[in-house]
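Action item from last week, closing it out:
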Amino acid sequence: MEKTLLILIADDDEGDRKLIKRALNHAGIDCECVESENIEDALKACDKYAFDCAILDYWLPGQDGLEGVSALLKKQPYMATIMSTGHGDEMVAAEAMKRGASDYIPKTHISAQSLGRSLKNAIERTALRKKIALQREELENFTRVLVHDFKSPIQSVQGFAYVIAQKVEAGANPAEIRDYCNRVIRGIKRMSALIEVLHGYTKADELVAFGKVEMNEIMAGVLSNLNEQIKETRAVVTTGELPAVLGNAPQLTQLLQNLVANALKYCKAPVPNVEVTAGAGPGNSWLISVKDNGIGIPQGQLQEVFKPFKRLHNVGEYDGTGLGLATCRKIAERHGGKIWCESTEGEGTTLFFTLQPVPVSYESSKLVAAQVGSEQSQA
């Protein structure tokens, strides 16, 4: 819990709210609290803020805390919730957990130590629940994509292979057979590309070593990797001075390469222009941007484009699996950063992502586990 937590305290007793805030303060928890005296106000607060945790009383005006747990989790499904009551028993605790509460604590047991432990456990359990839910969703999407996206090229390869066999048997001319063979090869390449993209997406979750990474060197590698595509599109790619960051070089290469490749792909201008720059980001982070003069993204889709398998265009209009930006988001979050975009449809898009600086005390030979920043990414 290295970041500042935003905590909702729902309790109609001012003294109890002060007790909870005092315990949080004595526990040394860096947090900001929003208070409400009833569930109605708590629900309104959930419309304004994204809370890390809610601590709510079992007895609340107009609605008991158990109903409140269900109502709050409908608003924010991955908010940790702790039920507190002066009338605690095991039945209430069990029912609270059934409703989705992350933990339970009697008010008579509230102290800096007990509330700090309960808050930590609640947030960890909620993070795990969120991770499992997202993995389940990803697995379902993977199944859908594998069935849908592999079906077409497999049928194509099978169909053309059958035609080739017939043509050979009928003594067709070599040029005709060669054409069908090329179609088979294209179908196989489509399957191979899909497998590669899926592999890259799943690799973004792997435990990797972090160290000092020079983003100037990463950019040079990206330009080398995309050299043919840049020549083919006659693109102009410019880059400013990029910083050294704490990260994993292969993953950051994939992140930046995906963004630049997208800028080249989704562009109808005679000369694609891509500009990569860096500056100070929020907090102590670095902010890196990739700006293009491409087709742009509709305002209502600025968040949707980062979802796995999300495609904004008809199949065949642009090549792709809908995993490029989703992979970028995974990598940015694994590095303790965030990624977002700004765009004007028809005029271009700017992708932004943040990365952590190299710590002053960092020794170049030291590697840091990739979990650095992973807690921040779950915010």
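Closing note: The chain has a mean pLDDT of 83.
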